[in-house]
Amino acid sequence: AQKITQTQPGMFVQEKEAVTLDCTYDTSDPSYGLFWYKQPSSGEMIFLIYQGSYDQQNATEGRYSLNFQKARKSANLVISASQLGDSAMYFCAMRVPTGANNLFFGTGTRLTVIP
Amino acid sequence: EAQVTQNPRYLITVTGKKLTVTCSQNMNHEYMSWYRQDPGLGLRQIYYSMNVEVTDKGDVPEGYKVSRKEKRNFPLILESPSPNQTSLYFCASSLSGTPYNEQFFGPGTRLTVL
User: Fold this and answer.
1) What is the end-to-end Cα distance of chain B in Å, rounded?
2) Quick check: B42 and A105 CB within 8 A?
3) What residues of chain A, 22 to 41, have a C-beta less than 8 Å from chain B?
4) For residue range A5-29, what is the model confidence (pLDDT) as tens digits?
5) pLDDT tens track for A51-68
6) Which of A63, A91, A105, B72 is such that its CA lies 20 to 30 A from the CA of A35?
7) How far apart are CA B97 and CA A57, in angstroms?
8) Measuring CA to CA, which residue among A1, A48, A4 is closest to residue A23?
């Protein structure tokens, strides 16, 4: 069975500092994709970054980077130079080649950026 | 602009009154899906579609119907809504059903069933 675990219900970070949001996953499938989504208070779900299970290098997208440690089954999101607009819920998700091909979501981490 | 659109964004209705939430994408994506998000339960998949005329149940399909007559549209139908279907609904699409494509989400539809 597939599982995504986010152990930090809430995190605080000072503006302009970096923050790491934790995510561990569990799957027996060798092929999978890992994703991070941001959900601001307005409710929409915004795709941030993707890492494939066969990718050798960690993914980066602007201020977002994904610290992918395959052996430990972790896919932590690093946000550098936090901004007030980064305050939101962050979801880690995994996609595997099952019949449904759906996304398995973690429970989320609420990030608050302090001025 | 590449996007997934949903309508309506907000809906308050009464038990038993049939409703449809529309979903449309302009990215020529093959895969489309519906999710509901509930506090403490996270996001759960309702139905998905791998391509036109191909739909299948997700984790929580009871009380919902879908159709995929055209590639761009994937409406969600509640034939007889009940209060336990009060939720935030998301439509999503991706290029294909492989694990290597991100799913793009619509803006969400907040449904309240009284």
Assistant:
1) 36
2) yes
3) 31-33, 35, 37
4) 999 999 999 999 999 999 999 998 8
5) 999 999 999 999 999 999
6) B72
7) 23
8) A4
